[in-house]
Please model this.
Amino acid sequence: MRTPMHHYENITCVVNLSLRSIRLILFDKKGVKIFEDWLPVRTTINGLHVEQDPKEWWQLLKELLGNLSQKKEIVKNITTLTVTSSAQCLVVINDDGDPIDKVFMVSDKRAADEADEIRQYLLQISELNAHKVDASYLLPKILWLKKHKRSVFRRAKRFLSANDYLLFKLTGKYVTDIFNAEKCYYDRNSRSYPKKLLKKLGLSSSYFPKVVDPGTGIGNVQKGVVGMFPFLSQTKVFVGTYDALCALIGSSTHEEGELNNVCGTCSSYRVFTHKKSVFSPKLLEQEFVSEKLRIIGGSNNLEGGVLEWAKECYYSDVYPKDDALLYSLIEREATESSLGANGLLFIPYLIGERLPISDIYVRGMFFGMERFHSRKDIIRSIFEANAFQAKMMVDEFEKSGIEIAKINMSGGVAKLSLAAQIRADVLGIPVHVVKEVETTALGAYILCQKGRGKLASIKEGSKLIAIEKKYIPNMHNHNCYASLFMLYKELYETNASLFKKRHEILKSVMHYQKKVLENL
Model:
């Protein structure tokens, strides 16, 4: 049924650049999704290198805007535009505003030694929290660039996140939000980047964009873009923030003890809390100061990405390339296996891991494979491994004194009932699936509405969030999974040193070859 015409007013367009795709999602003035379109983004993997092409991002966005321009009754009412994307993806820009290298994606781990170097320096000067340094962060990547790609480093005039780059292409302005900036150690109290650290890196704050609060309006779409897409001539652009925080805003009902788990290519786990206790150093802490809300959590490297791999590996050469069909088949076959996948365990770290183990060398592994195992068992073990990963994250929250009473689950994986039920069974916690799967875009929309003065707070935006289905844990299954989970953890702990040894051997006996993936 067609949406009533009066809803086509004050439309907000959200550009959502994820690890596997770039999307356009439009919401009407009531927060109802009225349009979406997307295109896949290619990823290149080469050893520890994980890269995308920022020029491709822009080309794909123009293609999506071109498609959107055909929706005449919609585009004439687009008043607001915002961007959200994955954090920690380094884009290097020259004096002309052009990218001069491929993007170092968040999962790129080549800067491990540089992260250690920065960590040791921070310990010496006591300027920042040294434990909040990782190879995925932007400054270690910039230091790696300085050491290993000197010509690129010398030509660099700006270091941007993915959000910042697309905002620049749309408006001509170098702007970022405070949450993205904090991942470059920006201090919100002094409103500055760490001078001593930047000096050591041979940088100044001029290399980084201006910092504003999420929801800040930064003007109109620039003339060159309007020339291609005239329907954007009156559109105001607002700064969003990175996707995990937008997804938290777009899925949280703001209850204490509610863990928001967004399951896309990777999986984000975050809570809003008023607690002031000391949290696990493995968890990132940020704060919406104006709302007195602390944000605690983190993300892993892959979840939906593991299922995407399984789809391509075990199904794509036999069945039509129809995602809806293939994921329905995957779910059905996993259901036809049994709890514990007939004794098969899977370690899902296909490109290393961020949280909670932070290991750049670990890779995937099947354990306990026997002659009778089938594809159904393999797929079931992947579903269970993703749930075990969720259990490891929940344990980190509980170590910090945050008792998790329920999980709000969203994202593409949440569409699979089996994934939600296994998660509830492994955790022993109710799992509530959010009705609007595009929670990242919805959160970006809520930030825009707050910035425009249409919402008094992001908490007020929770009235737009509805729960579609609730999954209650089967406690018999939960008890069975408890022993399997302990074995799952022991598998990694026992083999951790072997993964690093594997990496060193592969470096000496073979060269990594680039692998280009249509979907990460």
Observations:
- The radius of gyration is 22 Å.
- The chain has three domains: 5-241, 244-301+410-471, 304-393+474-517.
- Confidence is low (pLDDT under 50) at residues 1-6.
- Residues 304-393+474-517 form one domain.
